[in-house]
Amino acid sequence: MGIRQTKGRGRRYDSVLEAVGDTPAIRINRIAPGHVTVYVKFEAFNPGGSVKDRLALNIIEAAEREGRLKPGQTVVEATSGNTGIGLAMVCAAKGYPLVVTMAESFSVERRKLMRFLGAKVVLTPKELKGYGMYTKAKELAEANGWFLASQFETKDNADIHEATTAREIMADFEGERLDYFVSGYGTGGTVAGVGRVLRRERPETKIILTEPANAALVGSGYVNTRNAEGQPTEGHPAFNPHPIQGWTPDFIPLVLQEALDGGYYDELLPVPGPEGIAWSRRLAAEEGIFTGISGGATFAVAMKVAETAPQGSVILAMLPDTGERYLSTPLFEGIAEGMTEEEQALSASTPYGQMAAV
Ligand code: PMP
User: Fold this and answer.
1) DSSP sequence for 220-242
2) Residue pair 242/272 in contact by the 8 Å Cβ criterion
3) CATH 3.40.50.1100 fits domain 16-50+157-332
4) Residue 183 annotated to the active site
5) Does the global pTM surpass 0.85?
6) What are 3-27's pLDDT values in tens digits?
7) To test the ligand 1 pocket, which listed residue (58, 80, 82) has its Cβ within 8 A of the most ligand atoms?
8) Tens digits of per-residue pLDDT, 78-125?
């Protein structure tokens, strides 16, 4: 094998926003069982580091196209982080002020990233959960005449996954097998948008939906009440706090409801948070693929699917974001700052620059 050569993307970009999407589907080579082929769609390649760049861009551009967002108008949204980071990137590039409301329980990296990208972050008490940060965003929008991004209700969410995420999958697997597509949900935009296209164009592909085992909202069968705008009017009784940030808020969003009503999944497989963490670590340490907890959880379910999948099956798992925004979370628990015993022994094994225990 000669030296790796590259030749550029064959184009120049007029803005960072043109670099959103077209993420790679990457084969797993070491940790997947041999009777199947597993790919991951690695959304960390988006410029803001997550799948939510797609939705952020479309929420703003659809509102611009339809005159719902005025030049210089402040944008406000409740977000567990990735939508906020995506919106902050888009608003910075286009010159809109952004205010994000976020429960204090989400990782500190997320707050700092948004502030670094120029947004204001208003924290809400963790006891009030997702519904609390959401109500705060609504209140601020109404009180100030701001543009509420409404990721949980807007059609601009699933539409962009239909127009980009799904098209990329169609193109990358054209003429090839694709037996299973695995995804969790936050707003449900990914599964609704990709589901529309798979059902229409690849009906043989089984869609596997997943959610945290201790917050199995869809599995409970109970649908929370909503107002005329589709916004939840109560927290969901099956919700419990879970470590899979970005997944399953404490209500079933309207955007996800389309996927439930439309039968856009063949199987619902819950996953315990610790399994997500374990598989995220294995993806990093054994495949070099650095994704967050939701990516690990989606991959955990892909591995479960693989156990019973027929020989030769092809599985695609969504990896929604990069692991870098989880340094302060349980994902990194036990990752030492100082030298481990093994590292100290290495340090002591040659004479130069030895360090005592740190
Ligand atoms: N994983 C992470 C880390 C996320 O931030 C999100 C979006 N909140 C998702 C998964 C789920 O994506 P979607 O909103 O399209 O269902």
Assistant:
1) H-----B-TTS-BSS--TT----
2) no
3) yes
4) no
5) yes
6) 999 999 999 999 999 999 999 999 9
7) 82
8) 987 899 999 999 999 999 999 999 999 888 888 999 999 999 999 999
